[in-house]
Amino acid sequence: MNNAVVISIINSKGGVGKTTSALNLGAALAASETRVLLIDSDAQGNLTAALGCTPAEQKNTLAKLLLTTIDAPEDLDLHLPRSILHTESGIDLIPANKRLADAAARLQVMQLSQYNAVGDVDAPCEKVLNGVVEHLRGSYDYIIIDCGLKHELLTVNALSASDYCIIPVQAHFLASEGIPDVLELVKTVQARFNPRLKIAGILLTMYQSRPQLCQSVRASVGEIYGEDFHVFERPIEQTIKIAECPAVGKSILEYAPKNPAAESYRSLAREVLRLA
Fold this sequence. Notes:
single chain, alpha/beta, 47% helix
């Protein structure tokens, strides 16, 4: 693969397993001998912490890369290597912490300036992250962006830089789990910033082994959203082991490789590998 496939993990609701899915999809892809980079695009730094790093201690983060792209793009090649952590999991990571909120505020200032500008804007605030990602595509097979809940401009940036997005949804709360908001945002980004963006599918998470429930949720997808959206084949089981992973800074594939959730993420990775 010459050019990375970029995937955003997105939902406007919290607690649906975005960070867990970003980490474990990345680990499952890396186990398939692909080069994987995770980008933490959440000022809370949950993905950074889940890989065993302390967010507050990170000096070279996504925030620095975004601000460099805005203020001194000629220096981006200098800062990129310093901002990539090579983790014990075999996955690379661009970390995040609270400084990302400052970068988001800077993007908002840019947005206000754009609204007041006359004519086309050379570097729109919605595509700053794309400038970072384009420098990285040749070095990886997959780049996975974990989107946060706040700072919509950061999420728009992630989608503008992505080829696909995956929408994690709690299996028992499908209708109310933020999908309409995500679909509206995706449509906006497709129309204005990134026509190549596609929805890879809906990922059912926090699934408890009740086959009837899973079948009814799949049926609900068809009823509510028609046949337009793929539902990934295997839901992500809710298990104690997967809840323990962040405390040890490991993916479920490392921590409990025989756990049902680990097999769920291997199944997801197999489907993602077929996207390219």
